[in-house]
Write a structure and sequence with these properties.
Elements (H helix, E strand, L loop, with lengths): L13 H12 L9 H4 L1 H26 L9 H13 L18 H4 L2 H10 L16 H12 L1 H12 L4 H21 L3 H18 L3 H14 L7 H6 L6 H22 L1 H10 L1 E2 L5 E2 L14 E2 L1 H24 L8 H21 L2 E2 L5 H7 L7 H17 L7 H20 L23
Antiparallel strand pairs: 1-3, 2-4
Helix pairs in contact: 3-7, 3-9, 7-9, 7-10, 8-9, 8-10, 9-18, 10-11, 11-13, 13-14, 15-16, 16-17, 16-19, 18-19
Length: 447
């Protein structure tokens, strides 16, 4: 439509011009990527880990050892039996032999689905022996426990995505995490450790997005599965807003209290003894300088519980350090990438403290700290490559069977410390690409 006096179009006011310019200059909002594309690397790592794990346990591993029986993670079987008892409502049997369960009942609860499937197809949970070299449950239990262990890989990738880590770095991160998690799942059969660390990482991620309530439930679920993540709780609480602390603690405590309380009501003696004494076996596993100081139990076992209390005290010291640094630095509502990396590094430190005080060590005890430390190491290529190589070497060498504390424990602690060094200290003095404010506003949700 033309203007009758000038023969030109309608006049353009300054306000309309600026609005038009804003519309024309605004970048189009990209559609959210499909979940499969966003989590491609941990998904591929999980598939490869399942394939290699099943091949190593049923064919290649026995062939290399010159054995005909499958090379299975024997620790898994006791937890499967505990899960079967839980499935059948036998809470009083969770902590009685032959389960050997010392974690919280959530460790058995995460295996209930596969145990239900094993029962449905009529397979047995009979432990591997000379008379039973090929347990029928393994073709179902093996892939399942490896898949649920991979929750830690997906959590690490989700955090890396929030940090703005490039896809090539995320591919290397997934590979390094998978190499480390193989010790926990394929070699030793403790998926509860991996599931708990994965839930903890998701809890930290939720907290970085100001979702304190959701974070508390996730961390509470992690504790209910494997209480080792309690070591990270002081660091997490140090960054929670003071007005939310009471509600956060209540939510985080609820899952573990409910599950452990139910088991204790069903069989107080067995539950209390297993959870508080934490028996470990120096004749089977690796000695440390603290083995001789641990209280002696029956059957040659020692109590790891008192040493783990010392680890919790040291972790509280880490929490105080984080609290001081966090309160001394003004922060916006959302965490910057550098703040998220800092919290994750301190979480890795608290996980490493356990290995320093442990009276008897097993190689998969090293994994939680390695898994968490790899994430802040994504800050640049040099640190990520160095941390990935160190973590992979430590994981591989830790499977050795020599038992002297000075030729096994000390090198493992040194390797763990080196991984933490690479994760925290730059190999070259460069700017922190993630040190500024968050690239996008945090997603707000009520706690």
């Amino acid at each position: 439509m033309r203007d009758g006096n000038t023969g030109r179009g309608p006049a353009v006011t300054p306000s309309s011009a600026s609005a038009a310019a804003a519309v024309s200059d605004a970048a189009p909002v990209p559609a959210p990527s499909p979940w499969l594309a966003r989590r491609l690397f941990p998904l591929l790592a999980t598939i490869i880990l399942v394939a290699i794990g099943m091949m190593m346990t049923t064919w290649l591993g026995p062939a290399l050892d010159g054995k005909s029986a499958w090379a299975l993670p024997h620790d898994l079987w006791g937890t499967l039996i505990a899960a079967q008892r839980l499935l059948h409502g036998d809470l009083s049997g969770l902590y009685t032999q032959p389960t050997g369960l010392v974690a919280f009942p959530g460790a058995a609860a995460i295996l209930v689905p596969v145990v239900a499937l094993i029962d449905a197809v009529g397979f047995s949970l009979q432990t591997q022996s000379l008379a039973n070299p090929y347990p029928s449950a393994w073709p179902l239990a093996g892939p399942y426990e490896i898949v649920i262990s991979s929750v830690a890989l997906f959590a690490a990738d989700a955090i890396a995505e929030r940090l703005g880590v490039s896809r090539p770095k995320r591919a290397l991160l997934a590979a390094a995490e998978a190499a480390a998690v193989a010790s926990v799942s394929v070699r030793w059969g403790h998926p509860e450790d991996a599931v708990a660390v994965g839930l903890l990482l998701y809890g930290v991620l939720a907290l970085s997005r100001s979702r304190a309530g959701w974070s508390a439930w996730l961390i509470g679920a992690a504790v209910a599965v494997q209480p080792l993540v309690l070591l990270a709780l002081p660091v997490v609480l140090a960054v929670v807003a003071p007005r939310r602390l009471a509600g956060f603690l209540a939510r985080a405590a609820a899952p573990g209290v409910l599950l452990l309380g139910a088991a204790a009501l069903a069989n107080w003696t067995a539950t209390f003894k297993a959870v508080t004494s934490q028996p470990n076996y120096p004749a089977v596993d690796h000695l440390t300088p603290w083995t001789s100081l641990a209280p002696r139990l029956s059957n040659g076992a020692v109590a790891a519980g008192p040493a783990r209390v010392l680890a919790i005290v040291a972790a509280c010291g880490c929490g105080l350090a984080v609290w001081y640094r966090w309160r001394a630095t003004p922060r916006a509502a959302g965490w910057s990438p550098s703040a998220l990396r800092e919290v994750l590094w301190w979480v890795a430190v608290t996980m490493a403290i356990r290995t320093v005080f442990e009276p008897v060590m097993v190689s998969y005890y090293l994994w939680p700290s390695l898994a968490v430390a790899l994430i802040p190491a994504t800050r640049n290529w040099s640190r990520l490559v160095a941390a990935s190589i160190t973590a992979t070497v430590v994981t591989g060498v830790s499977q050795g069977w020599w038992r002297s504390p000075w030729t096994w424990w000390l090198p493992m602690i040194a390797g763990l410390g080196l991984t933490l060094f690479f994760a925290r200290v730059p190999l070259r003095r460069d700017a922190d690409p993630g040190g500024g404010p968050a690239a996008s506003p945090p997603q707000q949700a009520p706690a």
